[in-house]
Design goal:
By secondary structure, the chain is an alpha/beta fold. 42% of the residues lie in helices and 15% in strands. It has 15 helices and 15 strands. The strands form five sheets. It has a four-stranded parallel sheet, sandwiched between helices. A four-stranded antiparallel sheet has the order 5-6-7-8, with helices on one face. β1 and β2 form a beta hairpin. α9 crosses α10 and α14 packs antiparallel against α15. The chain binds one RNA strand through α1, α5, α7, α10 and α12.
Length: 468
RNA sequence: GGCGGGUUGGCGGAGAGGUUACGCAGCGGAUUGCAAAUCCGUGAAGACCGGUUCGAUUCCGGUACCCGCCUCCA
């Protein structure tokens, strides 16, 4: 069996991955807050951990991996959207408006992430379905002396957990010295964070031992991972920006609530995303969603390829140039395995080995280039090539419509005839005219002794072919 | 201010203490009505300064620059 090695943020080292139970490998990844479309940065961890999910399924068997990714549907931004709609005159209740907004956003998320070729996780719990579990965990923390109630809030007592800061390499004292902590009079210590907060009538709330209120952000992941994966599980993933404070707080909560267990064994964090060398932000005008790209005609598979062409622990720069290169490569690869069935085929072992070394997707893509060369020349190993690409979620059946030939038989025939005539008359004017028209419509024109081949490119516009 | 990460050839981007990464672009050639595509071949790197070593781009230290987090933005 292949040994998977993973860089563990907790130990800052690459380690052999040894699951607690090979019969059920368990992974939890922090999912989206469902208040709006997923932007390009949101897609990166989805594709990264989907690739890990696929690798784990390959190594341990598809039925022996449990992948949980949550939906955060309790959030002030969701509330704000709902309140805005209500203020605009919508007669429905706030709860109904919130439900509508989160349902709508989850639908978008699924559609967009499906387009990136990501498998649905085994379970996708919503925070609102686990409020009871959060309340019990908070009660346990209070009973254990790790949390306290004050002014309608319940706060986690950071000083009660000696390893607080270990994941992100910070000490409580250093952070306080940094002085960027929220000042709240009811906190025992400035670093203490909210487990539960009161809701007034204009906000969604649940009854609790501390009155009507709603959970703080961090407790949901602790409660849901415990309910669905247990007190100890294998991998916890998310973006690097979540390392502090979110994951640090999760560890504190979970380890104090279940001191006998180890919580997550391996922590993985993907680096952030940039666009054309700059941080993606609305103020710079380079902010866009996955849906924006899909609507512009960039295939989801191309977006996925670009994500995977940079190692997950390095900042990734999205550029139009990369998308162009990715498209060309995928077209070439898809042409090679157009009619190949990879079902049951053994994926190329070098690609798998490279990928198993801390999810080296960029290295795996390079290895695929080498395998392609070999298969191209020898004609053998197509299924193995495709199966290896499939572990990266590339060249999946059903995702290649964008690369499939469009019926251009008519223009092909006409151009062939024109060329036939021109070859004898030596007057190529008509041929060249038609060729430029085709090129302008986004069609790639290939002419050789073997004949004429027309291939639609990314910007192919069938409308422009009318009249040809 | 505190913590963490990065700096590889024209561009993108990996691995490895010593032997070609790879892709794109470029250049030369085959092919071509022209071009595209394809194929063959080919040049090009390791921010800076020290240290360890027979030998470092790869390990260690320092400098410069860049980036992220510390503000419920993945």
């Amino acid at each position: 069996m292949v040994t998977i090695r993973l860089h563990n943020s907790k130990t800052r080292r690459k380690e052999d991955f040894v699951p607690l139970n090979p019969g059920n490998v368990r992974m939890y990844v922090c999912g989206p807050t469902v208040y709006d479309r997923a932007h390009l940065g949101n897609g990166r961890p989805v594709v990264v951990f989907d690739t890990l999910f696929r690798l784990l399924r390959h190594v341990y068997g598809p039925d022996h991996v449990t992948y949980v990714r949550n939906f955060t549907d309790v959030d002030d931004k969701i509330n704000a959207t709902a309140q805005a709609r209500k203020a605009a005159g919508d007669p429905r209740s706030l709860e109904a408006l919130i439900r509508e907004r989160t349902e709508e956003t989850i639908g978008w998320y699924h559609a967009d992430m499906d387009a990136l070729g990501a498998l649905r996780p085994t379970q996708e719990p919503r925070a609102t379905e686990f409020i009871g579990a959060m309340i019990s965990m908070i009660e346990g923390l209070i009973a254990g002396g790790h949390a306290y109630e004050k002014a309608g809030h319940v706060l986690f007592r950071v000083r009660s957990y000696k390893d607080y800061g270990a994941l992100s390499g910070r000490s409580v004292d250093d952070m306080i010295a940094g002085a960027r902590v929220e000042v709240a009079p009811f906190k025992e210590d400035p670093m203490d964070f909210v487990l539960w907060k009161p809701s007034d009538a204009d906000l969604p709330g649940w009854e609790s031992p501390w009155g009507r209120g709603r959970p703080g952000w961090h407790i949901e992941c602790s409660a849901m991972s415990y309910e669905l994966l247990g007190a100890s599980f294998d991998i916890h993933g998310g973006g690097l920006d979540l390392q502090f404070p979110h994951h640090e707080n999760e560890i504190a909560q979970s380890c104090c609530a279940h001191p006998e267990a180890g919580f997550a064994q391996v922590w993985m964090h993907n680096e952030m995303l940039q666009v054309e060398g700059k941080k993606m932000s609305k103020s710079l005008g380079n902010f866009f969603t996955v849906r924006d790209l899909l609507d512009q005609g960039v295939p989801g598979e191309v977006i996925r390829f670009v994500y995977l062409s940079t190692h997950y622990r390095k900042p990734m720069d999205w550029t139009a140039e990369k998308a162009k290169e990715a498209e060309a490569t995928l077209r070439k690869w898809r042409a090679l395995v157009a009619d190949v069935d990879a079902e049951g085929a053994e994926p190329d072992h070098i690609v798998v080995a490279v990928l198993s070394d801390d999810l080296n997707t960029a290295g795996a893509i390079s290895a695929l280039h080498a395998v392609y060369q070999h298969v191209e020349h020898s004609g053998v190993g197509k299924a193995s090539f495709k199966a290896a690409a499939n572990i990266l979620g590339l060249l999946q059946d059903g995702m290649g419509a964008w690369a499939e030939p469009v019926d251009l038989a008519g223009p092909t025939m006409r151009l062939s005839e024109l060329r036939e005539v021109a070859m004898s008359t030596k007057d190529f004017a008509a041929v060249d005219a038609m060729k430029s028209a085709l090129t302008a419509a986004g069609v790639e024109v290939r002419m050789s002794k073997a004949g004429v081949v027309l291939l639609p490119g990314l910007g192919f516009d069938p409308e422009k072919l009318r009249g040809l």
